[in-house]
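Reopening: structure tokens for the DOR complex, inputs below.
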Amino acid sequence: MPDRHLTSLTIRRPDDWHLHLRDGAMLKAVLPETARHFARAIVMPNLVPPVVTSAQALAYRERIMAALPPGAKFQPLMTLYLTETTDPEDVREAYAAGIATAVKLYPAGATTNSDSGVREIEKVRAVLDVMAEIGMPLCIHGEVTDHDVDIFDREAVFIDRVMKPLRKKVPDLRIVMEHVTTQDAVDYVRDSNKNLGATITTHHLIINRNHILAGGIKPHFYCLPVAKREAHRVALVQAAISGDKRFFLGTDSAPHTDPNKLQACGCAGIFSAPNTMSCLAEVFDAAGRIRKIEDFASLNGPLFYGLPPNEDTITLIKGDPVTYPAQIATGDGPVTVFDPGFDLHWRVVD
Ligand code: DOR
Ligand code: ZN
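Re-run output (same inputs, fresh job):
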């Protein structure tokens, strides 16, 4: 049956290969939203203070497990926040012991809580060499931070100034270019023949920069990397629906309370955990490729990370518009849920 007439689709349970869960009261409130549909997630380490060592990752994983609703099955895959003083042997041990699945590289100053990130890549070379040796993936926030580079160009410039030289110097390093937002990044990943994958967020498949800026400023659409012009969004959709194994879902669901978003200098981040699968289904269905949602959300990610796909399944069913809360309450304050701007017809049935 052609994809267009499908009204029900059963797929392997999806995973989220890029997620912010935060800590404390916020963790408690947002974790069930992800655990409801996703089996596993790569958990970002940009807490305050950041999750740098294997001991910190282990402790954070325990806090996540303790915050799970009773009976929920969810596996957090932990990351270590790369600093210029990270100990390569601690990274090696964290990977060997199954404590950390990947290391996260934030260029210093690129985004939320990235001040302890990397200023000079040569200073982390010993860590990267160990990771290449043991096959541990490096997740990269791919934006330069130079003030003279326009914010809309920071990803494309990063490819030339950082990614290309890095991949030449450490060719065996397995890299995920996180939350790609440009045609340039899509082309770069497509042109590579090994050791490079990319995550794409739900919201970057749906919004372009007009959503943020036209007709009044919309802080709930502000995230980093910032959404680009429409042609880039279209390139991301093409990559996501193509089935190309190098592209997989990383929602980058990143909750901030409304008071922290709605101010003169508001935080970057879009909270999409509650409605991500419905949003994605709408995008894939509109492109006539609903079946490919399984490659993108459930198969390509595990393949890159060398993990088996999930054994159990979810079913997506098309019908009347799905309802979801506009906000969720947390102990820290309300968090607004991503509003794609159109009705969602696909609901998830476990
Ligand atoms: O929009 C974003 N929010 N981008 C990031 O890179 C970080 C994230 C956060 O932690 O809030
Ligand atoms: Zn992120």
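The chain is about 35% helix and 15% strand. The mean pLDDT is 97. Marking as resolved unless the reporter disagrees.
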